[in-house]
């Protein structure tokens, strides 16, 4: 196909459309802008701010909020493009930044925790403190879980979820025990108990937080608001502004919505909020049923006006005509915008990726030659629903010598479960002197060994007396020994197969150590022959046992097993030595291209990483019912639909939708 020449994006211009003019001319005290992708909702908010400033002779006090920091940056950029400079009297903040400012005005100490290593150490100290508490309890299940390494990522995810959804309040209102509440909400009980201990240590006996990490300021303000009656004023948000504007309404969670309500009902002038409620995909947001707009409206004045913006400036008629019946929306294109929507069908995953290779060649060669340049505009952007779907893509494009990048997902060979499997392959089938695998892969394997094998990399022991008093031991925050040890060990294992075997068996390079008893050590100690076929190796029962016994939640366990299957499918029929050799060449070549700053012509993105962004050329592969959108419980079905919407609305000039021939998604609706 001939690639469209999207020259309208080379000279951007900002003029109000008829739909935007409705917002600018409205005199309503509260407005919700329901805007589709690429319709300029952020620009409309900024135009409204400029109008308000102009009407009040430049003396208006206006607060413009966004849910994310990226949203704040976008607002500031748009204001400068519209106004030349940032107007005086205009504050542009996230909800978290607003709440931080309120707490500072209250006069309490405001120590911010932004060091992830320090926070990790505090989580580990909370684990030690909870273990001390369990000496007086009889909870064998919790004690066994706490005795293992903490999954820091899982803890951080649960902490964010608890604070966004205000789950502590829900649990108290439910009257259920924490154990029953976690079972009912599909939450990890042990991780929740650890969160409660960590939060108890952070806040202290007197309820005065010792520090605030990201999200804690909003959580603290919500705690203060929870002490008030529904209509009782909150003095810190009373009569501070002449107008409040909010972008990214679709990402609101319970905590942010509580703060926003007090702000809007605090005599702060008019309110204008904007959102694309088809992009409501974040876990922790308060609704996945598509009722977000109605839920927000219930928290605003009764006469709140809802205005729609459907005319998109991002893409043209072809993409609009594909999206409208699929998602039951009403995109309207600008007449001068040219674009292309190309549906393709595939029979197998290999067939799907082969088509991606062909599309990449068209984009990289056709577009760059037409424009006389290479780089961002000549890249094909592939948006994936599941990380496991990148395995075959990376493998094939790696063999093609394409310089690709991953955003929102890790390259498949650096994922802990994959790297550990690769290291075990080499340890069993490798020969002395072979420098298979890279230090980066081995470093990820060391992390995987600790994470899935219940082996601690070690951390500085805290003072048990301070922990017993629910206090953190802050005597010397330094880089975690475990992290440093992991990198050092990985470097020493590179090219030394005997050293690698010993480390897997003993969990250390100390010659005085005794062998480990976990599944990883059992694999090297097994007497039976291991298959030389790399695909069959990945399906071995002992290898699967690692993840069956690992101290991880079921969601992560399923992801690990999905990775093993994807790796097995990729490597089937290839001898282990050949597979590792080919992979090492691909990775080494990728490192060389990165160091030489060769342009990236393929981006592989998660949906979360693509949200809020736009690209010239987008391909959405592996689209079929039951896969993308994936199978889900009823309450999550709308979120799955929205994920496909986000992926398909990122393109400016060309969108390729690759659908499974047996289970196509179109004609819809999803």
UniProtKB/TrEMBL annotation:
This is DNA 3'-5' helicase. Its EC number is 5.6.2.4. It is an enzyme of class 5 (isomerase). ATP binds at residues 35-42. InterPro entries: DNA_helicase_UvrD-like_C, DNA_helicase_UvrD/REP, P-loop_NTPase, UvrD-like_ATP-bd. It comes from Comamonas resistens. The keyword Nucleotide-binding applies. It catalyses: Couples ATP hydrolysis with the unwinding of duplex DNA by translocating in the 3'-5' direction; ATP + H2O = ADP + phosphate + H(+). Keywords: ATP-binding, Helicase, Hydrolase, Isomerase, Nucleotide-binding. SUPFAM superfamilies: P-loop containing nucleoside triphosphate hydrolases. Residues 14-316 form the UvrD-like helicase ATP-binding domain. It comes from the Bacteria. Signal peptide: none annotated.
């Amino acid at each position: 196909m001939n690639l469209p020449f999207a020259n309208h994006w080379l000279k951007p211009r900002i003029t109000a459309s008829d739909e935007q003019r409705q917002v600018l001319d409205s005199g309503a005290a509260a407005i919700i802008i329901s805007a589709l992708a690429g319709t300029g909702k952020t620009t409309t908010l900024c135009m409204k701010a400029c109008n308000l400033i102009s009407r009040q002779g430049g003396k208006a006090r206006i607060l413009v909020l966004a849910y994310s920091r990226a949203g704040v940056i976008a607002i500031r950029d748009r204001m400068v493009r519209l106004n030349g400079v940032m107007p005086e009297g205009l504050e542009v903040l996230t909800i978290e930044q607003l709440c931080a400012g309120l707490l500072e005005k209250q006069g309490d100490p405001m120590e911010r925790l932004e060091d992830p290593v320090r926070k990790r150490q505090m989580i580990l100290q909370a684990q030690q403190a909870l273990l001390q508490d369990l000496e007086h309890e009889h909870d064998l299940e919790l004690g066994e879980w706490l005795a293992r390494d903490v999954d820091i990522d899982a803890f951080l995810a649960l902490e964010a979820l608890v604070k966004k959804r205000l789950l502590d309040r829900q649990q108290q209102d439910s009257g259920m025990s924490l154990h029953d509440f976690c079972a009912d909400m599909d939450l990890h009980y042990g991780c929740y108990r650890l969160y409660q201990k960590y939060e108890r240590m952070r806040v202290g006996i007197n309820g005065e937080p010792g520090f605030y990490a990201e999200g804690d300021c909003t959580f603290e303000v919500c705690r203060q608001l929870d002490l008030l009656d529904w209509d009782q004023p909150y003095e810190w948000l009373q009569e501070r502004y002449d107008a409040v504007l909010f972008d990214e309404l679709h990402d609101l969670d319970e905590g942010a919505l509580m703060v926003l309500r007090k702000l809007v009902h605090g005599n702060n002038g008019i309110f204008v909020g904007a959102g694309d409620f088809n992009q409501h995909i974040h876990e922790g947001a308060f609704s996945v049923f598509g009722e977000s707009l109605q839920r927000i409206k219930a928290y605003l004045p009764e006469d709140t006006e809802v205005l729609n913006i459907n005319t998109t400036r991002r893409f043209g008629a072809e993409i609009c005509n594909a999206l409208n019946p699929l998602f039951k929306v009403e995109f309207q294109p600008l007449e001068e915008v040219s674009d292309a929507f190309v549906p393709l069908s595939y029979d197998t995953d290999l067939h799907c990726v082969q088509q991606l290779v062909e599309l990449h060649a068209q984009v990289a060669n056709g577009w760059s030659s037409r424009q006389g340049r290479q780089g961002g505009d000549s890249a094909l952007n592939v948006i994936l629903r599941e990380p496991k779907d990148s395995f075959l893509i990376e493998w094939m494009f790696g063999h093609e010598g394409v310089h690709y990048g991953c955003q929102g997902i890790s390259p498949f060979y650096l994922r802990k479960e994959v790297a550990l499997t690769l290291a075990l392959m080499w340890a069993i089938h490798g020969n002395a002197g072979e420098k298979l695998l890279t230090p980066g892969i081995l470093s990820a394997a060391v992390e995987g060994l600790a994470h899935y094998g219940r082996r601690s990399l070690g951390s500085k022991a805290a003072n048990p007396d301070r922990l017993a008093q629910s206090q953190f031991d802050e005597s010397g925050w330094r880089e975690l020994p475990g992290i440093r040890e992991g990198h050092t060990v990985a470097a020493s294992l590179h090219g030394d197969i005997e050293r690698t075997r010993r480390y897997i068996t003993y969990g250390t390079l100390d010659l005085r150590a005794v062998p480990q008893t976990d599944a990883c050590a059992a694999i090297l100690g097994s007497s039976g022959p291991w298959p030389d076929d790399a695909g069959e190796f990945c399906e071995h029962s002992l290898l699967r046992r690692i993840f069956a016994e690992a101290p991880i939640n079921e969601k992560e366990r399923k992801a690990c097993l999905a990775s093993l299957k994807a790796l097995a499918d990729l490597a089937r029929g290839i001898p282990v030595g050949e597979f590792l050799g080919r992979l090492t060449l691909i990775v080494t070549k990728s490192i060389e291209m990165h160091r030489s700053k060769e342009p990236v012509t393929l981006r592989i993105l998660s949906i979360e990483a693509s949200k809020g962004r736009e690209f010239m050329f987008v391909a959405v592969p592996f689209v079929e019912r039951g896969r993308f959108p994936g199978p889900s419980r009823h309450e999550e079905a709308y979120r799955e639909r929205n994920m496909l919407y986000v992926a398909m609305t990122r393109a400016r000039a060309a969108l390729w939708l690759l659908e499974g021939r047996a289970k196509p998604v179109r004609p819809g609706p999803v």
